[in-house]
Amino acid sequence: MNCNLAVTLQTLNKCFVIIGYGNDLRSDDAIGPCVAKAVEAWGVPNVDSLALQQLTPELADRLQDAYGAIFVDASSSPEVKKVEVLAIEPIESGKTMTHTSDPRSLLALTKALYGRYPHAWLVKVPAVNFELGESLSPIAQKGIDDALEEIDYLLRSQTYASHS
To answer: CDD domains under this entry (predicted)?
Structure first.
């Protein structure tokens, strides 16, 4: 992580929330929390990093004032062969949010409660092993490294794009 990014984020007073979610007792499902912990270790001001087991409605309060939110999750889909970064918007259906949720419905709840929601992205990381255990597959380990590069790039591009 470049220290210029930290200074720029502080100067612009922009807040980003990184939310990595998944079960760290289900092998590759721990990808999201692992990424969130690694981002937290960067120590970048104005970047709040959360490692969670699942998304809950209470997170809307954390998102209301954020400029950007990056959600990180393991993907068991065979179509996901490499890390994917997708811009996401609130879900527009009449679905209600239950105890667990997906990022789009969490954004919808944030919009409904606070009248706004942050720019948001979903980082999908390839995963192959969801058995009970705490070790990551080689695919997941590579995916974590790639996801961290993508998040670093995303933070830089969003920061400098709005700075110009």
So the answer is: H2MP_NAD-link-bidir
How would you classify the pairing of strands 119-126 and 68-75?
parallel
Beta bridge partners of 120: 69, 88
Structure confidence by residue, pLDDT tens digits, 40-86:
999 998 999 999 999 999 999 999 999 999 999 999 998 888 999 99
Alpha-carbon dihedral angle through residues 155, 50, 11, 121, given to the nearest 10 degrees: 30
Does the pLDDT of residue 99 top 50, yes or no? no
Which residues are registered as beta bridge partners of 73? 124
Provide the total of helices (H) and of strands (E) in the chain, helices listed first: 5, 5
Structure-block tokens of residue 60 = 């809307």
Q: pTM for this structure?
A: 0.88
Tell me the domains of the chain and their CATH numbers: 14-163 (3.40.50.1450)
d(CA 147, CA 134): 19
Residue showing tokens 């942050």: 118
